[in-house]
């Protein structure tokens, strides 16, 4: 998993990251991304064309990445590293959350190419093929 | 493959044919494979005839794009389903004849030995009749028409009709009873069809064919001042007298020649400008013409399994048309509650989609149904969509507008016409080629049918909308599975099924 998060570096807490930090981060990343893709393409995308536009697709992606960032930050900070306040958060938790957020959008885009096949109204978003 | 030969005579005949094309564009069921219109009018420049030609030409282009090579049993009830051939015009141009005098070579009757013929001719025709120019029809003089129209049977088109006539084919004649061309042409045609001594092709089939006709009784009057000042030869104050005389003649001489006879008319007359035919004669479409058009469909359902008069259970049947309730403004509520009401509503929503939403849909490269069907880019610029759009904006809305014209004392107003923004421009346009400018918003889609709002759901957060493209996209995959032979047919099937679904959901008629 450290290879997956190759952009991330930690000087002091590598063991904790390796033991559960990366795993939880990845679960949050894929959990939320799949949730949003399911919502966008399968739940809404089969029911209504209200969300069938690049703008709406992008909006779902942005909400996804923001949630991934916030949840990663909260879970890693308060649960994995058991800090008792935002003031005590290490810089690496912020940077890990930012990287997870970046990944969230990348995977949102990549998995969109798969999920869109299961949609009716949003089948040709974000790209038509 | 049965055919209907539809003889339409005079200006009224052409207007009935236009209404029939509009009716058939709704997909209303016609119990026949093909309709072959035969226009009989000496006034070849008549504005109503020209309008009729244009409507059917566009109708036929749309029909051919969708149903070319498709079995007649498939896609029943779909828009533009019944094949209407471009009208055959029986070549009896009045300009070729000049006056009645010239036509019969009156001067030659001065020769020795023709005195009795000349006297007899003078007895039947006064000087006005004899000097009447025939290029604009018979101007309410059926006695003149009965001589001139004899030439119809000599025309190339009539010979083609006799050659192509088959045993199962039927004949229907549309004419007015109170004018000149129609009143003269109808009895003449019946006598020709039933003449057992005729030398025409397929005489036996034609003699024994099931023949129907609609006679349009007076339903409009024209400006009398123009008749009084001599500007026009048409005098509508004689319409009733002429009608009585003609009905008496029909009763004595025609009822044994015809199998189904329809009468339509209205005491609440419309008021038209008085023109002696020509390009200026473009009377607005009238509800009576629409009822006359429905008689064609009724005739096709008249003992549908009978193919000759011998198969019929009775020799002659007579029909009239009545409204469920009398009203000066007729809406769908005044008509018989049958499947055609829903068909009308479907057709109207289809036209609204074509005129207001379809172009944007076709221009949207990521719209689901457009991509599923695989429509090429720039499809909105191709002929099929152009023809659909033209039929809707140039002909359909104008037809609705004319039916609700202030000239009618009984208007037909089935749909809200406030969506047509350039009504005045359309009314003034003589060319008939100005497209309607239609504006429909999401709210208006619920109130398009007069007196019958669409069912509406929604709540405080989400407003209910009629979403054509959403429904079309949902069904587009099933359309693909049907493996239809062309994009146009796929598109048409989707529009038909999608709009039917919307109307079934929204209207409990």
How are the secondary structure elements laid out?
The complex is a heterodimer of chains A (129) and B (509).
Chain A: H1 14-44, H2 54-80, H3 91-115
Helix pairs in contact in A: 1-2, 1-3, 2-3
Chain B: E1 3-9, H1 10-25, E2 34-40, H2 47-67, E3 83-84, E4 88-89, H3 94-97, H4 100-104, H5 115-124, H6 127-130, H7 142-148, H8 156-164, E5 170-176, H9 181-193, H10 203-207, E6 210-216, E7 220-222, H11 224-228, H12 239-253, E8 260-264, E9 270-272, H13 287-301, E10 317-320, E11 329-330, H14 339-356, H15 358-363, H16 368-373, H17 383-403, E12 411-412, H18 423-428, H19 468-481, H20 487-506
Parallel strand pairs in B: 1-2, 1-5, 2-3, 2-4, 5-6, 6-8, 7-9, 8-10, 11-12
What oligomerization state is this entry in?
heterodimer
What composes the largest sheet of chain B?
8 strands, parallel
Helix vs. strand class of chain A = mainly alpha
Number of helices of chain A: 3
Q: Compute the gyration radius of chain B: what is it?
A: 24 Å
**Contiguous uncertain segments of 5+ residues of chain A:** none
First-residue to last-residue Cα separation of chain B: 34 Å
- Main pleated sheet of chain A: none
Radius of gyration of chain A: 16 Å
Kindly estimate the percentage of residues of chain B that lie in beta strands according to DSSP. 5-15%
